[in-house]
Amino acid sequence: AAMLHLEGLTKTYKTGDAALSDVTLTIPKGQIMGLIGPSGAGKSTMIRCINRLVEPSAGQVVLSDVDLVRLGKSELRRQRRRIGMIFQEYSLVERLTVMENVLSGRLGYVPFWRSFLRKYPPSDIQLAYRLLDRVGLMDQADKRADALSGGQRQRVGIARALAQEPELLLVDEPTASLDPKTSRQIMRLLIEICAERGLPAIINIHDVPLAQQFMQRIVGLRAGRVVFDGPPEQLNEAA
Ligand code: ADP
Ligand code: ADP
């Protein structure tokens, strides 16, 4: 696992004002940080700037001594493998099985066609089974992704991200379209898995009560700036 430091991270899209303004913060190894704020506050922009799905306009993204913002394309591709991404649950490849979706995490990109899947070594297959067992989907390995429920799909998303053996997890609205009970189950699973591995994570949660229930640290964004950074108890006092 790694430590993440953001220094003066700023993003101005061509069409507008700064979506992210001068954000500086550090996430130590093993810390799970919940990112909250109203729609348009810059949460997705921040998550996407960290792995450069969005190009930052200024600032640094330092993952254990490497500034990702300064890297050229090929080195960025290598360094990105250190960062696992979990999106809303519709990000699975529908026509592939659960097992194939998890294995695609070993590739570092999402294959769109079955024929793109290489033959995986037995160690990859074993890892994928261990992860499916951990997320409680051992008996679903051969089902197609499009046959799963929302909660199951998100479990596959978690297993796929872990198959990459990441040093940092970025999680963008993991429970956006799940019911409250399933949302809590998924959030609890994520937290347990990160804690087991000492894996730091940034979780974009639009649901504030859910963030308060599960996060040790909450960062609040508003209009691209950090307006709160502390434990959930202090959020109550600030509000
Ligand atoms: P959040 O995730 O907190 O809802 P976003 O990061 O999606 O916030 O958006 C922050 C601001 O940046 C908003 O004003 C949004 O309209 C704007 N924005 C987001 N993506 C783009 C884009 N691709 N091009 C232009 N503006 C964008
Ligand atoms: P979220 O707030 O969940 O990130 P949005 O509905 O704000 O989602 O945005 C959906 C998509 O549109 C995102 O990819 C975002 O980057 C993009 N987007 C948001 N605002 C703008 C904008 N003003 N101009 C262009 N693209 C935008």
Automatic annotation (TrEMBL):
<keyword id="KW-1003">Cell membrane</keyword>
<dbReference type="GO" id="GO:0016887">
    <property type="term" value="F:ATP hydrolysis activity"/>
</dbReference>
<comment type="similarity">
    <text>Belongs to the ABC transporter superfamily.</text>
</comment>
<keyword id="KW-0067">ATP-binding</keyword>
<keyword id="KW-0547">Nucleotide-binding</keyword>
<protein>
    <submittedName>
        <fullName>ABC-type phosphonate uptake system ATPase component PhnC</fullName>
    </submittedName>
</protein>
<keyword id="KW-1278">Translocase</keyword>
<dbReference type="GO" id="GO:0005524">
    <property type="term" value="F:ATP binding"/>
</dbReference>
<keyword id="KW-0472">Membrane</keyword>
<dbReference type="GO" id="GO:0016020">
    <property type="term" value="C:membrane"/>
</dbReference>
<dbReference type="GO" id="GO:0015416">
    <property type="term" value="F:ABC-type phosphonate transporter activity"/>
</dbReference>
<keyword id="KW-0813">Transport</keyword>
<feature type="domain" description="ABC transporter">
    <location>
        <begin position="4"/>
        <end position="239"/>
    </location>
</feature>
